[in-house]
Design a protein that fits this description.
Elements (H helix, E strand, L loop, with lengths): L7 H15 L7 H14 L3 H14 L2 E6 L5 E2 L4 E7 L3 E5 L4 E6 L1 H5 L2 H5 L8 E5 L2 H7 L3 H14 L7
Antiparallel strand pairs: 1-3, 2-5, 3-4, 5-6
Length: 163
């Protein structure tokens, strides 16, 4: 998971946008979604956020391996900054922005379940120094704009609804 230090309102919007963007991938990265819901729960606690986090954790399963890229490695937006493996899924933890990896959490490498138990305390994956945070902030989608995009995706996927 990449770490940024925006003010709280921007952080909440950024987390919501990141969660929504993961649902547009061909295969949803449930481990990443679970990590993001944990962070959103810290920023904006609510029963809905906790329910969504529980679903994401169940879909991802317990992490069993984390292999981050090395400190000093530059990554592009959308490129893997770590490979994560759960009992149900193996895949990349994609960086939301281009930048340089400045820290790797060796605790999570040694005990991957830490990421499930405490994703924004001891369970972070990597720290990324964004190449251009101001440019990244402008690409994030939130609120009504995200709802419109999600509705368009559901229509394109012929989603019948939840009735």
């Amino acid at each position: 998971m990449t770490v940024y230090k925006p003010i709280q309102a921007e952080a909440e919007t950024a987390v919501q946008a990141a969660i929504a963007s993961l649902h547009f991938e061909p295969e949803t990265d449930w481990a990443q979604v679970a990590l993001l819901y944990a962070r959103l729960g810290e920023l904006a606690p609510s029963p809905v956020v906790e329910l969504n986090r529980a679903v994401a954790v169940a879909m991802a399963g317990q992490l069993v391996a984390v292999t981050p890229e090395k400190v000093g490695r530059s990554v592009r937006a959308g490129q893997s900054c770590a490979t994560i493996e759960s009992g149900k899924w193996v895949g990349p933890a994609r960086s939301a922005a281009a930048g340089d990896i400045v820290a790797v959490n060796e605790t999570v490498v040694g005990k991957p379940s830490t990421a499930n138990a405490d994703p924004y305390g001891d369970g972070w994956l990597v720290v990324l120094k964004p190449a251009n945070w101001d440019a990244v902030k402008r690409t994030l989608v939130s609120g009504a704009d995200m709802a419109t995009r999600y509705e368009a995706k559901m229509a394109a996927d012929n989603f019948p609804g939840c009735a």
